[in-house]
Amino acid sequence: MNPGIGAPEMLVVLVLALIVVGPEQLPVMLRKVGRMIGHARMMARDFQRSFDEIGRETELGDLRKEIEALKAANPIQEIHGEIDKAAQDVQDEQIRDLKISKDKEFLPPKKVKKTKPAKGDS
């Protein structure tokens, strides 16, 4: 938690504080230092929360963009379009086939040329 500050260093700091501040003001000073440390921790937590919130908002923004892209792409609509196109192609082919078969029905019969029998064929 306190990198680089171990028990011996803390003991030196407390002895210096006792000498500089005096035994009467030491508890008051320690309370103030405790409040300042608590306030610094609270600020650090708020700072961390704000970064977490920004990260979530960014993530939500990305998800919203992906959802909008999926809505715009709409694969179901694409499938419907392909099915409609295939159905139209089948209908066009059926109509073509019907027209061809009707044309064949109404064609005049082919005239068959009568050939004269050859003289030797009697």
What does this structure look like?
This protein has 122 residues and is mostly helical. It has a domain at 24-102. It has 3 helices and no strands. It has helices at residues 7-21, 26-73, 75-105. The longest helix is centred in the middle third of the chain and has 48 residues, at 26-73.
Features:
single chain; 122 residues; mainly alpha
Which helices and strands occur, and which strands form pairs?
Blueprint: H1 7-21, H2 26-73, H3 75-105
Molecular shape? rod-shaped
| Alpha-beta classification | mainly alpha
Number of helices: 3
Number of strands: 0
How large is the radius of gyration? 48 Å
Q: How is the main sheet built?
A: none
Task: Report how far the terminal alpha carbons are from each other.
Answer: 128 Å
- Low-confidence regions: none
Q: Work out the strand percent.
A: under 5%
**Overall pLDDT:** 82
The portion of residues assigned to helices is over 70%
H/E series: HHH
